[in-house]
Amino acid sequence: MRSPKDFFRPLAIGAPDPVREIPFRPSRMIHFFDPSNPKMVAKVPDLAPKVDILLGNLEDAVAAEHKEAARAGLVEVGRSWDPSGGTQLWTRVNALDSPWVLDDLTTLVAEIGDRLDVVMLPKVEGAEDIHYADRLLAQLEARAGLQRPLLLHAILETARGVANVEEICLASPRMQGLSLGPADLAADRRMKTTRVGGGHPGYLVREDPPDGDVDASRATAQQDLWHYTVARMVDACGVAGILPFYGPFGDIKDTVACEDQFRNAYLLGCVGAWSLHPVQIGIAKQVFSPEPAEVAWAKRVVEAMGDGTGAVMLDGKMQDDATYKQCQVVLDLARSLAERDPDLAREYDL
Ligand SMILES: CC(=O)SCCNC(=O)CCNC(=O)[C@H](O)C(C)(C)COP(=O)(O)OP(=O)(O)OC[C@H]1O[C@@H](n2cnc3c(N)ncnc32)[C@H](O)[C@@H]1OP(=O)(O)O
Ligand SMILES: O=CC(=O)O
Ligand SMILES: [Mg+2]
């Protein structure tokens, strides 16, 4: 194990210094596109200003015969990318055991390393995966003469990854965040759902039988299959000072259930989710931006609490040091979103 004193030292001579803190930038949606698909690439100029993060996906959902074209397509997008708009450019590279990942990393860092913000790594199982990518990126950054380190984002999508989630988050100063990968995770855990995220009608609780009559009709409510993992992920990210995201919701037509899944993640502490189709961009934008009424309430609490200590009553509700901090979380998020979004700035009146 390396000495903690070495944690913030570059892993290759000439590589940029690792970041000390993960910058919080608006990250409500990570919009996936396939850079080998000309129709999707044609939409990039229009989509880029509408999303917080645009991600060129090279892994699953890109057919094996299109892997090289996807990599080359992302290089083209990166070369004409204008970072001054504030949108982040990310990529999801192929898995570390795949035949493509080495070329993905070497090509992307050399060609567009100065445009990319974050590299998403799929199927991360433990700290050893992050250590490998960390060293390789440092070598590639040094060779490319990059001034700023690329950050790493891991997808939590194997049982082993979930079991090792804390060590993954703490494995490198490059770690920017985690996403839940419910599809691969379901397969790896042998869960019996064939859906990409979302609930399942079979996973429910049923009310007790009235007067012991087990044949009577009884109300049921679907439960959230992902609650445990999202909560675990949020805590692990909190420990490491990095950002948790919900991942994909595959039922593109069911925008209502998508919104519910995103909102559960938002309330539990996630900063954003993936959008797989343009229709999901607006859902994520709305859900992961605090409601104006919530922001107004947070402002009232902070004002009423003065220096943030003691207890006061506001509309019949007790406020103290802890609720002051809860309200600061909402206000900090609102302020950072308002800086990027003039409509929200007006609605929040900040
Ligand atoms: C489990 C996981 O790993 S999830 C992450 C990996 N999966 C992905 O990245 C999937 C990304 N999304 C997609 O591939 C597509 O959205 C699909 C296959 C789900 C649906 O695609 P389509 O059937 O073409 O959807 P639809 O007909 O509604 O598309 C409307 C238009 O939006 C475009 N479009 C669809 N998705 C996207 C996207 N993610 N980004 C940009 N444009 C898109 C289509 O090309 C189409 O363009 P056109 O009007 O010029 O013909
Ligand atoms: O990559 C995402 C997943 O759900 O699997
Ligand atoms: Mg996956």
Automatic annotation (TrEMBL):
Keyword Metal-binding on entry: yes
One MF annotation (Gene Ontology) recorded for this entry: magnesium ion binding
UniProt keyword terms in alphabetical order: Lyase, Magnesium, Metal-binding
Listed cofactors: Mg(2+)
Binding-site residues, Mg(2+): 157, 184
InterPro entries: Aldolase/citrate-lyase_domain (IPR005000), Citrate_lyase_beta/mcl1/mcl2 (IPR011206), Pyrv/PenolPyrv_kinase-like_dom (IPR015813), Pyrv_kinase-like_dom_sf (IPR040442)
The keyword Lyase appears for this protein: yes
Name of the featured protein: Citrate lyase subunit beta
UniProt source species: Egicoccus halophilus
